[in-house]
Amino acid sequence: MLYSERNGFRKNKEKTDKIERIAYKLLLDCCEKYKRNLTYQFPKKEYHSFTDKSYTTFDETNFINTLKLLIPDLYINEAGKVDLPSEENYNQLALIDYIEFFAQNIMDIRVTWNNSIYRNFEYIDCLSTKNIRDNFRDEINNIFNLAGLTFELTANGNIERINECCSFVDEIQKDIEKVNEDGLEKLLEEAVKLYKDPNPVSQKYAVEKLWDAFERLKTYYDANKRQSANKLVDSMATNNEYFLQIFSNEFHVLTKIGNECRIRHHEMDKIEISEEYYDYLFQRCISLIGLAIKYLDK
Asked: Do the Cβ atoms of 293 and 232 come closer than 8 Å?
């Protein structure tokens, strides 16, 4: 930690989901550093005539051709190298795909010179271990943190969106797994997955899926939605009239939002939702659902 940060003189970096050009370049350079760890997927046999030896190296051409098919929106320059796009309006999701490709596929290697004195060429031995993935993940997440990006590369090699609410959502996920109703459990899992997706468009669909789960939750006990919801609210309130009123009002308000806003319904008279509201709506609804599922079948 540097002096200004350590002593509180540095302003907190504003969190963002926009990968600026400096961060883009740092992330590309990090991937480049680990490229030879993909040699087992892209091996190329070479022959060194002076030493009359064959050896394995990284096949850059095969690598680039594969990327063109796998991540077609990834910018590749005229020299056939993955590079920082020249235009400002670049596709940052392609970069996220690129990072995930490395995170999920790199393997440990051992690199040695053929001769410690003359160093004519290097041997690349591909190992069966994956320890290098932890180093790669740490470096990528460090760049995300330095750039103030709301992303995290997880241990399974996926990039997820993170914010202050995500730790709370992670806790709710543990309760979701215990829900004894497959349809509700599936809707909640899909909503959480979309909420953590780094694509900004996914937040809209996360809210839509969550409201679907909310409506299904209200029929957990009975096809009669009002009776079923009332039974759940009674259970949540635990005979406390004050909280009975609070939870009843919250169920009513969230139902009203779902009916009047363009979440589950898309008629012309529905109220449009600003992109800035999706986090708030998701967090408000998941908070109520997270509490409610603790009281199911009680």
From this structure: no
* Residues in the chain, total: 298
Structure tokens at 253: 């308000």
Scan for tokens 């929106």, then name that residue.
Answer: 73
Count Cβ atoms below 10 Å from residue 76 Cβ, excluding itself: 16
d(CA 288, CA 98): 37
The overall average pLDDT reported for the chain is 92
pLDDT per position as a tens digit, 1-21 = 777 777 776 676 778 889 999
As given in the structure block, the two tokens for residue 153 are 């590369």
The domain segmentation of the chain, as residue ranges, is 3-153, 163-292
CA distance linking residue 238 with residue 235, whole number of Å = 5
Give the separation between CA 216 and CA 236, rounded to whole angstroms. 17
List the one residue out of 159, 148, 170 whose CA is nearest residue 13.
148
pLDDT of residue 72: 96
Q: What are phi and psi of 19, to 5 degrees?
A: -85, 105
Which of 101, 89, 20 lies closest to 64, judged by CA? 101
Contacts of 76-82 with CB under 8 Å at 24 or more apart are: 82/28, 82/31, 82/32
